[in-house]
Structures are given as structure tokens and as C-alpha cells.
């Protein structure tokens, strides 16, 4: 009994010693904790207000980046065409959505690169170098974007949104505001994508009809025609190098 109590006392002594050592180590090593201050104070110079407004504008652009990518770039046309192609081939989920979106995204970078470089050289870089003001940079950035949107937007779609916005009809297409150009560009891209999708459907539809007719003539009504036509579709698509033709045609449609 006496030995058991001695063992307990030793364990308690070692535990207290270890606790003191750990406490000393914790006191010796200090970790700096950053402080964050949020306050509202009166600005003493106009430049302070301008910096705050620039930060708010930058955060707004970052928040709207997905919408800008979808609505003001060729991404819409590309992803819709690839979706129609997959449906026409009947491959269901192959290629998967991640591959289609990724391919459309990188092709969008190829197409929009000249416009982005023009915006950088005319607006962003001079503004960062403090050569032009914020208003001038914003006006200069609109010019290449407006030019790209006008090249791929139908006049009928522009007229539709000008009438819907109840604004004065611009004398020329170049005077149309971005508020009108962006939705007009979107529906123009959707119309073009649906036309391309219809053209892509035709050869695969012919193969489906031929296979269905042959199976019906042979009396194999219980055999799904899609199961037989799918290998022929894949063979035709591979023989004509379909991905190369479609990607090249889409790039050329934007002038790349």
C-alpha cells in the first residue's frame, strides 16, 4: 500500500514538473496576432475617397466576374455548341461537363486575348502608371469591348433592346450603350449557337434514320437503334477529325 502511494506521488510530481516546463515554454514563445481595425472617419483629402471608391469598384467587378465571363465573351456560343454536339452524338455524359466547360473556357481565352490586351494597353496600364484618370480609363476600356460586341451582334437585336429600354435611337451602331449591347450580344450568340447545333445534328440524324430503317427491315424491332448507330457516329466523327473541324470553325467564326 505504501509503495502504491509513493508511485502516485511520483506521478503527480512528474506531472506538475511537466506542466511547469510547458508553461515556461509557452511563455517563452510568443506568436504575434495581427489586429484588424474597421472604422469610419472623415476624409481629409479627395484622394482618400477616390481610393475607397476604386476598391469598391474592384470588388464589384470581382463579384460580377462570372456574369461578365458568360455574357460578354464567346463562352456562351462555345459551351452551347459543345452541348449540342454531345447530344447529337448520343454519348450522354461523354465528354463530361467539366471537359466541355474547360475546353470552352480556354478557347474563350484564345478568342478574347486581343481584346484583353487592347484594354490593358489603352486603359489599365496607363491608369496604374497614373497617366490617365479613372474616368478616362473607363471610357478607353469600353472601346475595344464595344468593338468586339458590335462585330458579333445583329442590328435587329440591338434595335429590340433600344426599343425596350425606351431610349433615343442612336444615329450609328457605335453609339449604342453597353446596357443595350450586352443583352443583344447574348441573344445573338444564342441564335448563332442554335444554328450551329442544328447543322451538327443533321449528319448524326441521318445515321440514326438509316440504322433504324435497316433494323426495322430486318425485323429487329426490340433492338434499340441507338446501340447500333453510336459506333457508326463515333467512327464518322473520328474519320473526319470532328474536334479539329469544330474547334477551327468556331475560332474562325470570331475572326481568330
Task: Write structural notes for this entry.
The chain has helices spanning 2-28, 46-63, 65-71, 75-89, 97-128, 134-151, 155-164, 178-217, 225-239, 242-253. It has ten helices and no strands. Residues 16-31 have low confidence and may be disordered. The protein has a domain at 179-256.
Give the overall shape: elongated
The N- and C-terminal alpha carbons lie at a distance of 92 Å
Rg over CA atoms, rounded to whole Å, is 32 Å
SSE arrangement, N to C: HHHHHHHHHH
| Structural class computed from helices and strand pairing | mainly alpha
Explain the layout of strands and helices:
Blueprint: H1 2-28, H2 46-63, H3 65-71, H4 75-89, H5 97-128, H6 134-151, H7 155-164, H8 178-217, H9 225-239, H10 242-253
Helix pairs in contact: 4-5, 4-8, 5-6, 6-8, 7-8, 8-9
